[in-house]
Amino acid sequence: MASGLSRRRGHPSLKEGRRDQIRGAEAKLKLDLHTHLFEATRFSEVGERMIGLIIAKIKEMGLNGIAVTEHHNPDYGYKVKEIVERAFENEVVIIPGREIYQWPVEIVELFLPNQATFRFIAHPGYPGDFTAVEDVHGIEVENALHDWHIIKHKVREMAAKHDLLLLGNSDAHEIRDIGAHYTEISLKELCDRARSKTG
Ligand SMILES: [Zn+2]
Questions:
Q1: Does 93 map to a domain?
Q2: How far is the CA of 67 from the centre of ligand 1 (A)?
């Protein structure tokens, strides 16, 4: 698959490695930035066999990676990332995150390199109506689980007015649902947008 993620052969010089890293950060990636893998795996301890299945699904859907955004606690996402790095040579991008209540909306936070946090409104219209946008960088216009709650023209208007990134995500609670929607964006743009406003 053509992407910025292909494995290197041999030992790159430091300069080459850095150049690849930069190119990788600027490459447009297909990312599903809202998944609940802990729930999808029936709250089982994260292990290599399970991660293998998740990676296979990510690739089957033609994605470069996902964010792992359990409710409240980002630990599970960090564990997944650690295993993908250690045992799977970073075959796919894993962004640790979490989903939190901030009545009347739910916010997904993505923990990016250099302490940058990208925040977006998940499924606008559920559970409550969305109004506050001061401390967010994006908003879902597609969510496979809650699509009927989303008034798309209203979301697009809001996004244009406040310069929010429009996102499509699966909100997968089952491995088979990973990648039902995705967003094409580079890691650099996510980081730049995260730094453009602070909460
Ligand atoms: Zn969710």
A1: yes
A2: 11
